[in-house]
Design brief:
14 helices, 26% strand, alpha+beta, single chain, globular, 24 strands, 414 residues, binds uridine-diphosphate-2(N-acetylglucosaminyl) butyric acid, four-stranded mixed β-sheet
């Protein structure tokens, strides 16, 4: 699959933002813990359909009704998640916590996900063992015995999003109180906790670095409005910025955008926040000088590539430091094909702004790099072909259609 783009069109208009992939996936895993139906808004991206395939294998039923999806975990059973399915997405590992939480035992294979550096699960497993889970690894299969699961304090060595979510899913139906310390504060973690609390869980502290879980006997499925995707919204804001456009993103919680808004203002854009809408008008683009990614509330790694795309045509030089994933500059050679001036040294990229980019044939190397290349193509002079577009479809719903509605000339060729 590829995106064909005729660049140079200003993006203008308004766009409704879809549910957040990284909240939706853990909530799907959480449905394994619920009695009764969980009802969510539909989210049409491939990471969700791949997660549904895993849950179906575990006996979860799915029905669609209007714009909703109805998830029934009552027939849920314990089964090995085979490598063929687990390798399709990182979030498959979240079924481990949920299955051990529900059945006390689970067997899973190593998760997949975007190739953006080593993505181990040592923090997940270490913390689970500290809570009494016995773990064996053999030929790539992780077998967990949670019959001796107990409460207590667990300190994470790093505030991993996935490890935090897995531990919550593991302990929410446990026996004893658990305190998780140095956990991830990402809004998606808070959304998972809000969902679980709505279903009857007793979780306090989500959004801070310490979460306390008082186990409950059962969780009852509920209808839940998953938060909107701050990374998707940020991508559209950057798409308007890079094309000298003017846009309104709708349905978002502006509190989650502080670091992005600050950097967009520094780069010469005008921003206005009203309720759940953020408006951006692009300006005379200038370099922000320095940008570094880190855990929330710092600048998100998932917007790093898209922001670098913007910096390639901003006046001046910029240093970008990636602190979360080791290999998140794989897209740089592709931007260079389009005329960008970037050098990379370890986890630091040096971007020297050029007046404009030119269309080229480029390859997406992962989800966010694919989005960044689309943005570069939208701003470039001439035609750009972004191959391996399927990476982008993992996390952006109707991306080409929404961009066209904003005035972009882009089509997805299957
Ligand atoms: N890490 C370890 N050991 C572990 C877990 C993580 O060393 O056991 C390291 C990772 O290798 C990485 C860093 O810690 O260098 C951050 O990993 P984290 O566990 O926080 O991330 P994740 O749970 O694997 C989620 C999102 C990512 C997002 C990161 C950071 C999902 C499904 N994925 O990944 O989203 O970049 O948090 O915010 O929630 C994306 O959407 O494009 C994406 C990659």
């Amino acid at each position: 699959m590829e995106f064909m783009i005729n660049g140079g069109k200003k993006l203008c208009g308004a766009v409704e933002i879809e549910c957040a992939k990284n909240a939706y996936l853990p909530i799907l895993a959480a449905s394994l813990l619920c009695d009764g139906e969980v009802i969510l808004d539909k989210l049409n991206i491939t990471d969700v359909s791949n997660m549904q395939d895993i849950l179906r294998l575990l006996g979860v039923g799915f029905k669609e009704q209007n714009e909703k999806i109805i998830i029934d975990g009552s027939g849920c059973k314990n089964a090995l998640i085979p490598a063929k399915l687990a390798s399709k997405l990182r979030a498959s590992i979240l079924c481990l916590g949920a299955l051990v939480g529900r059945f006390k035992r689970a067997r899973v294979t190593y998760p997949g996900g975007c190739d953006i550096g080593l993505r181990p699960i040592d923090l997940h497993l270490k913390a689970m063992m500290e809570l009494g889970v016995e773990i064996e690894e053999c030929h790539g299969v992780i077998s967990c015995d949670g019959t001796k699961l107990h409460g207590g304090d667990v300190v994470l060595d790093y505030a991993s999003v996935g490890a935090t979510e897995n531990l919550i899913l593991l302990t929410v139906l446990g026996r004893d109180k658990v305190r998780l310390i140095n956990v991830a504060r990402e809004p998606e973690v808070v959304d998972l906790c809000n969902f679980l609390n709505k279903c009857g869980a007793k979780i306090v502290g989500a959004g801070s670095s310490e979460i306390e879980i008082t186990p409950v006997k059962r969780l009852i499925g509920r209808e839940y409005a998953v938060m909107k995707d701050r990374i998707v919204a940020g991508t559209y804001l950057l798409a308007a910025a890079i094309t000298n456009g003017e846009i309104e993103v709708r349905g978002v919680n502006s509190h989650f955008f502080t670091s992005l808004i600050k950097k967009l203002c520094q780069s010469g854009c005008f921003l206005d926040v009203k309720g759940d809408k953020i408006r951006l008008k692009s300006g005379d683009l200038k370099s922000v000088g320095f940008l570094e990614t880190n855990v929330y509330p710092a600048f998100p790694t998932d917007l790093q590539a898209q922001f670098v795309a913007l910096q390639t045509i901003a006046r001046g030089d910029c240093v970008v430091k990636e602190n979360v994933f080791a290999s998140r500059f794989k897209y740089v050679p592709e931007l260079i094909k389009m005329g960008a001036k970037i050098t990379v040294s370890g986890n630091v990229a040096f971007v020297e702004g050029v007046p404009y980019l030119t269309g080229a044939e480029v390859f997406a190397t992962d989800l966010r790099s694919g989005a960044a290349l689309v943005l570069a193509g939208l701003s470039a002079k001439g035609y750009t072909k972004v191959s391996s577009a399927e990476f982008v479809l993992r996390g952006y719903e109707n991306f080409d259609e929404k961009l066209r509605s904003l005035g972009a000339e882009i089509k997805l060729v299957i």
